[in-house]
Amino acid sequence: MRAQFVLSEIGVGLRRNLTMTFAVIVSVALSLALFGGAVLMGQQVDAMKDFWYDKVNVTIYLCNKNDAEGAETCSKGAVTAQQKEQIEADLKKLDIVETVHHESAEEAYKHYREQYSETPIASVITPDQMQESFRVKLKNPEKYEVVATAFSGRSGVHSVQDQRGILETLFNMMRGMNVAALVVMGLMLLIALMLIVNTVRVSAFSRRRETGIMRLVGASSFYIQMPFIMEAAFAGLLGGLVACVLLLVGRYFLIDAGLSLAEQMPLVQFIGWDAVFSVLPLVLVLGLLMPSLAAAVALRKYLKV
User: What is the role of the protein in this entry (predicted)?
Assistant: First the structure.
C-alpha cells in the first residue's frame, strides 16, 4: 500500500467533512476528559482514604456531671476515677489498639476555644461542661466495631464515635460525583460514536466513485477501507490530545493555581502530577481505538467491498 495515496485520501476526507470532523473531535475530547477526570477522582478518593484513615481516631466520650439526664449510662453522674482506669486498661488489652490518649475536660475546653473561639456559644461554655475522652488510634481503622461493641453502653461511657464515619460522607459524595461524571461521559461517548458513524457514511457516499474504480482495478477491502478508518483515528487522536490538555489545565488551575485548592485545604492530600501523567496514555489510546473501531463497524454497512 502506498502511504502517499492513503495520506492524500485522508486529507480529502477531512476537508470534505470538516464540520463533522470538528464535532467528532470535540465530542471525543469531552468524553475522554470526563473519563480521565473520573479516573483521577477515584484516585483522589483512594489517596484521601489512605491519608485520613491513618490519622482518624475512635473517640470514647466519658460522662460528666451534666450528662445524667442525657444518657442512660451516665445516670449515676460523672465517670469515676476507677471507671476511667478500667476503661483505659481494657483498651490497652485490645490487640487492634495502637495508642490510647486521655483528654481531660480542661484540654477539651482549650481545644474547643482554639477551634471555635469566634462562635457565640464559645463565650458561655465552661470547662466543666466539656467531656473527658479517650482518643484511640487503631492499627486497622476498619475494626472500629470491635471498640464500639466493647465500650458502648458501659457505665461511665457517654458515647463512642468513629471519626471515619464523618469522612465517609465526604467520600460517598465524591463517589457520587464520580458516577455522575461517568454517566455524562457515556452519553458524550455515544454522541461521538454516532457522529463518527455518520461521518463515515457521508464520506463513503461522497467517494463512491473512487471506491468503485478501486474495486474494478482489484484493490482489496482493507486497502479501500483504510483511509476511512484512519480519518476516524486521526480525529479521535486529536480529540484525545485535546482531552489531555483539558486534564492538565484542570489539574493546574484547580489545585496549583486559580482556585488553588491546595492552599485553601492544606489538610487534604491531593493527587500529584504523576497521577495525571499516568492517565494520559490511556486517554490517547482510547481516543485512537474507539473511533477506529466505530468506523470499521460502520464501513461494513455503508461501504460494500
Answer: Part of the ABC transporter FtsEX involved in cellular division.
